[in-house]
Amino acid sequence: MKIKEKFMRKRSAIVLLLCDIVGLQLASALAILTRFEFQPSTVEPYFVDTLLRYAVLNTFCSLFIFAAYRLYAILWRFASVMDFFNVVKAVLVASAFQFIGMHLLAWPIPRSYIILYIGWAGLIVVMPRILIRVLRGGRKIPLQKVDKQPTAVMLIGAGEAGNMILNEIKNSQFVDKEVCCIIDDDSKKWGTFLNGVPVVGGRHKILQYAVRFGIKEIILAVPTIEAHDRKEILNICKQTGCKLSMLPGMYQLINSEVKVSMLRDVQIEDLLGREPVKTDLPDIMQYVEGHKVMVTGGGGSIGSELCRQIANYHPESLLILDNYENNAYELQMELKRHYPELDVMVLIVSVQNRQRIRNIFAKYRPEIVFHAAAHKHVPLMENSPCDAIKNNVFGTINVAKEASAVGTKRMVLISTDKAVRPTNIMGASKRICEMVIQTFNQHSDTEYVAVRFGNVLGSNGSVVPLFRKQIQEGGPVTVTHPEIIRYFMTIPEAVSLVLQAGAYAKGGEIFILDMGEPVKILDLAENMIRLSGLTPGEDIEIKFTGLRPGEKLYEELLIDEDNKKETPNKRIFIGQPIPLDEEKFIEDIRRLETAAFSEDPNIRDIVKELVPEYTINGH
Q1: How would DSSP label each residue in 554-578?
Q2: 3-state secondary structure 357-387
Q3: Is the pLDDT of residue 599 over 80?
Q4: Is pLDDT above 50 for 4?
Q5: What's the pLDDT score for residue 556?
Q6: Whole-angstrom Cα distance, residue 9 to residue 73?
Q7: Is 418 one of the annotated active-site residues of the chain?
Q8: Which three-class secondary structure state does DSSP give residue 119?
Q9: Which of 35-44, 225-234, 253-262, 376-385 has the highest mean pLDDT?
Q10: What pLDDT does residue 156 have?
C-alpha cells in the first residue's frame, strides 16, 4: 500500500522523467541529422558511435541537473514563466557539461552539434511541460513586482484559487507580501513546488512552519472547503497569532474572479463550522418572482438582507418600509446599483402609524409581506415596556390587518427564540405577535405564518459588533456570565431559510429554524480576541458583568420538541400552534392596547395574562 501511494504521489514526475530520457536521445539524433541536413547516408559512422557511447553518461548527467533545478517537483499545470526559464537554464547547464565532457574525453563530434543539441533538447524537454500548462492551466503573465520588504505569508491551498492568489502576490508590484510556504491536505502535492514555493504538508504542519518561516499572515485560498474543515483549519491558525485572511466563496471562481483584492479578514462566522444553507430555488421563485413584495423594517439587519435576496428572485416590485431614513436610503442606493431594472420604493414610516400603513397598503397592494420591523434590544425594552408593546404587537396588528384588507397572499412574521418561555418584555411581545398571526389566519384568506430563530451574527445589537468595538478600544470585553450560551446564525443564512419557510407556508404555521449547536459567549469573545491577533486575559481583559434584567443563561427555540413537524428542508421545522382562547385573547389585546397607549406602569401584568409562561423580570 505504501509503495502504491508513493508511486501515485510521484506519478507525474515519473512520466516527465521518462519523457526526458526519450527526449534527450531524440535531441541527440536530431542535432546530428540537422548538421548533415537530414541526410542519414552522409553521417560518418564514428559520429553515431560517439553518440551511442555517450548516451548513458549524457542522460544520467542531464537528469541529475534537471532534478537539481526542480524540474520534477514543480506543479506544471500552474507553472509560471520563471519555471519555464528554469527549464532553459537546466538544458544550458546540462549541455555545457556535455560539451566539456566530450572535449575532455576527445570524442569526435561536429562543433556545430552542441548548438543544435541545445535547441532540440530545450524544445523537446519543454514541450510536455507546456502541454500540461496549456491543457490544465492557462493564465496570463502579470507584471513584475517591485522589490519591497514583504509580509511573510503562508498560503493554504495548492489548487487553482491558491495559484491565482500566488501568481498575483509574486508578480504584482502593488502587493507587499511574500508567500514562504504552502499548506495542502492532498498528500500527493507534498514536497512539490507551486510557482517556486514549496508545498510543505497538510494542516498538521501549520504551527511548525508558521514558526520556521516567521509567518505574519495566513491566507486560506480554498473556496470549496467544507464548513467543518474550515473551522478546524482556522482554529489551528488562530494559535499562530497571525493575521488571517480568506477568499469569500467558490462562486467567485465561476468567472475566474479570484484576486488578492477579494481576500477578506476571517470573521467569527467562519469559526462556527456551519454547513451552507441549501434552499429550493424553484419553490422561492414561484411565490416571489413577478409579485409585489413588501418588507417592513427593511433598513435593519434582517430586513435589508431580505431585500437583497428577494431582489435576486425578480419580484415585480419591492416596497421597503422603515422609520430610520439613513439605513433605508443606503439600501435603496445599493439595490439600484445592483438591480437597475428592479422597481424599488422606500417609504419612511412607523408601523405604529395605523392610518399611514392603511394608505400604503391601499395604494401599493403588496402580494407578499415580510414583517421584520420590531424593537428587539432586550435591556432597552425592559426600560420601555409600553413602547415594546406598541411597536411590536400593535405594529404587527396594523400590518396584518391591512394585509388582509387588500388581499395580500402571504404575510411572514420574523419572530425570535426569545418568544419561548420569555423572561423579558421583548420576548413576550414577540410571543403575542405569533398569537396575533395565528388569530388573523383563522379569519382571512391571507396566509399568515411566523418564522422563529435565534441570534444572528453581526446584526444591530448583537454581541459581535459590541465585542469588536471593545477589542478595538483595547478592552475590556464584557460578558454577562461565564456560562451564558446562545444559538447563532449568519444573517444571509437566516434570511435564506426565512424565504424557504415562506415557500412552505399554508397558513398558521410557526416555523422554527435549526440554529445548529449553541455557542458559549465566553468562547465567542475569546475567539474574536484571537482573530484580532491578541491574547485573551493578557492583551485584552474579559470582564463578567452579571446577567441583565430579563436575560437568560440559554435560549429555547421550541417548547415541545417531541411534537415538532419536519419539512422538506432539514433545517426548517414546524412548531405546535400556540393554544389560546380567541375571545379572551381579543379582549386581553384591547386591554393591552389601552395600557400601552396610556403608559400603564403595570402593563407587564396584562402581558402575563396573555403569555402565562412569561416570567416577569426573570423571577
Answers
A1: S--S-S-GGG-EE-SSTTEEEEPPP
A2: HHHHHHHHCCCEEEECCCCCCHHHHHHCHHH
A3: yes
A4: no
A5: 61
A6: 11
A7: yes
A8: helix
A9: 376-385
A10: 93
Cα–Cα separations (whole angstroms), residue 93 to 31, 62, 63, 98, 493: 17, 8, 11, 9, 58
Strands (E), 467-536: 477-479, 485-486, 488-490, 510-513, 519-520
Mean pLDDT of 77-100: 78
Per-residue confidence (pLDDT) for residue 203, from 0 to 100: 93
Stated length of the chain: 619
Cα distances from 526 to residues 128, 153, 316, 468, in angstroms, run 52, 24, 46, 11
Count helices and strands (H / E) in the chain: 21, 22
Q: Kindly report, residue by residue over 176-202, the tens digit of the pLDDT.
A: 888 999 999 998 889 888 888 899 999
Report whether pLDDT(233) > 70: yes
Return the sign of the alpha-carbon dihedral for residues 311, 317, 322, 324.
positive
CA distances from 311 to 277, 289, 290, 383 (A): 18, 9, 11, 37
pLDDT at 432: 96
- The residue among 229, 231, 233, 260 whose CA lies nearest residue 247 is 260
- The predicted pLDDT at position 594 comes to 95
| Sequence-ordered list of residues with C-beta below 8 angstroms from that of 529, at least 6 positions apart, any chain | 471, 477, 535, 536, 539, 540, 542
Cell matching residue 577: 400552534
Cell numbers that stand for 218 in this block: 495566513
476 cis-preceded (ω within 30 degrees of 0): yes
Q: Beta strands 368-371 and 344-348: pairing type?
A: unpaired
Give the largest Cα separation in the chain, rounded. Answer: 116
Q: Which residue has the cell 387588500?
A: 406
pLDDT at 254 > cutoff 50: no
Residue written as grid cell 560518418? 44
Of 170, 418, 430, 552, which one is the catalytic site residue?
418
Report the candidate in 412, 399, 410 with the shortest Cα–Cα distance to residue 451: 412
Asked if residue 28 lies in contact with residue 117, where contact means CB atoms within 8 angstroms, the answer is yes
Residue 326: in which H helix or E strand, if any? Answer: helix 325-338
So what's the pLDDT on residue 16? 80
Q: What is the DSSP letter of 419?
A: G
Span 389-393, average pLDDT = 97
Sign of CA dihedral 326, 332, 334, 337: negative
Q: How far is CA 522 from CA 139, 379, 483, in A?
A: 46, 20, 7
* Highest mean pLDDT: which range of 10-24, 281-295, 426-440: 426-440
Alpha carbon dihedral 70, 74, 76, 81, in 10-degree steps, equals -70
Pairwise CA distance, residues 385 & 432, whole Å: 14
**Tens digits of residue pLDDT in 322-347:** 999 999 999 999 999 989 999 999 99
How far is CA 597 from each of CA 284, 388, 411, 594, rounded to the nearest angstrom?
39, 11, 26, 6
- The single residue listed with the C-alpha cell 435549526 is 514
Cα–Cα distances (Å) from 368 to 334, 374, 609, in that order, read 22, 18, 32
pLDDT tens track for 108-157: 677 777 788 888 887 888 888 888 777 765 444 444 444 456 889 999 99
Share the mean pLDDT of the chain: 83
